[in-house]
Amino acid sequence: MNIPDIRTVTVIGAGTMGSGIALTALRAGFEVRLYDISQAMLSRASEYIQHHLQRKNQEDRFAALSLIDKLEAFSGSDVVIEAAPEKLDIKKTLFRDISEICPPPALLVSNTSTLPITLLAASAEAPERVGGMHFFNPAPVLPLVEVIRAVQTSETAFQRMLGFARSLGKTPVAVNDTPGFIVNRVARPFYGEALKLLAEGAASHSDIDAIMEGIGFRMGPFRLMDLIGIDINFTAMKSMYEQTFFEPRYRPSLIQQQKIHAGHLGRKTGRGFYNYAETDDVAEPPQDSTETPAFSGKVLLLGEDWAPDLRASLQAAGMNVTGEPADDVAVAIVAASHERDLQKHVIVLDQRLSEWTPLLVQCYDKPLSEIASWMEHPQRLAGLDGLFFATSSRPTLARHAKWNHELEPLVEAFMAALQKQPVWIQETPGLVASRILCMLINEAAFAALEKVANPETIDLAMKLGVNYPKGLFEWGAALGYSRVLAILQHLYDEYGEDRYRPCVYLKQLVRMKND
């Protein structure tokens, strides 16, 4: 249902977002004006809108669209949605001019994803009617709209914006004005930590993608950056970094800057992290044609702190699971925390098992190289991502400098018996999936602490806005906040960087949940 006092919607900018927002408003029954200074852009937008209306048998709604190229034609608009390029000077000028042409009670809203709404409102007459409505691409499809309250936004105007978003068939979430709002802010570590792992040589871009897709993300960070546009993603990160007075959690990556310098911006240029002219580079890597030997023998499992449901997974695969060292143990696993006998278990097994028995050990709260230093036979040691072992199709194994590659066929056979294809990486603090995900959870905690939105709203926004398989507070509770905190503390201890400091609200959640 339309809000009675809103009938005419004007959209500024006939690019991808502006066209999508205009189509959404047409489908919802509004009279729509679409503005751009480029006739070519207006023409393409018109064709796009007409095509998609026809696909839904809504051709009659096309008559409610007006294409305009003069600001004076904004007169009489009830809502103006600015979707111009992300350049502050352009947007400030637009809000100054539009506020004169469209007097109160017309709502003036920006679709910006990175710029401060409070600053845009300061350019307008009657700034109390200015706010943000951040749609997600593709706007006609994705249900979320972040509705942003500037410092000047009145309660009446803000409630009208929320109601207008609902009348478009969207799910609005109320957000206070902060760099990146909810989604673009909280999602930063998905890209930032992936880029840091790549820069350190811990894993390739395709392996990092495979690991993250294996735990439920629809696209890994590098495929997603290529889809968004590396230049756009870099600009958002740079804007966040500058607006937060150089908060280290948002530090941009040199790798992205080099890609931009080379003109490798992703799908739109045919090359980014992947080469889209070579389809093999985009697809999954080819499978090894070498037949994996059959796995036999017992699996020794000690401690399950860092590997929930691992025992059940082993038993479901018909494996003989034991807790005692023996000659017929083929693979040994230690998933105990450092506080619960990790070192003792590793030393005992290293002494009592054959040096040809692989020892897979959690390394969330201790570095893999330190664990290796406890052993007489460190060549048998590999790191295990136990948190996601039971649920991921692509669990992570980590090598260190002394790892014996001759043991890999046996480990591969063990994984194949569980119908899993491991991804081998180099030793790195926090591994890959757990490191990226814990940084995401920590960022969500910072957003809640700083009153950007409450935890429930943040979870809803991340699921609806970027299709995360779970909300981050939901995921934190499932993993156990104490485990999340331990991984972050391990990262902080290893790197000594403020980037990895655990949020005080996360610490409070650990105490409240007592997990």
List the helices and strands and how they pair.
Elements: E1 8-12, H1 16-27, E2 31-35, H2 39-55, E3 65-68, E4 79-82, H3 88-101, E5 107-110, H4 117-121, E6 130-135, E7 144-149, H5 155-167, E8 171-176, H6 183-186, H7 188-199, H8 205-214, H9 221-228, H10 230-243, H11 254-262, H12 279-282, E9 298-302, H13 310-316, E10 321-322, E11 329-334, H14 342-352, E12 359-362, H15 368-373, E13 381-384, E14 396-399, H16 408-417, E15 423-426, H17 433-449, H18 455-466, H19 472-479, H20 481-495, H21 504-513
Parallel strand pairs: 1-2, 1-4, 2-3, 4-5, 5-6, 7-8, 9-10, 9-11, 11-12, 12-13, 14-15
Antiparallel strand pairs: 6-7, 13-14
Helix content: 40-55%
The CATH topology annotation of the largest domain reads as: N-(1-d-carboxylethyl)-l-norvaline Dehydrogenase, domain 2
Strand content: 5-15%
Q: Spans with pLDDT under 50 lasting ≥5 residues?
A: none
Q: What does the overall shape look like?
A: elongated
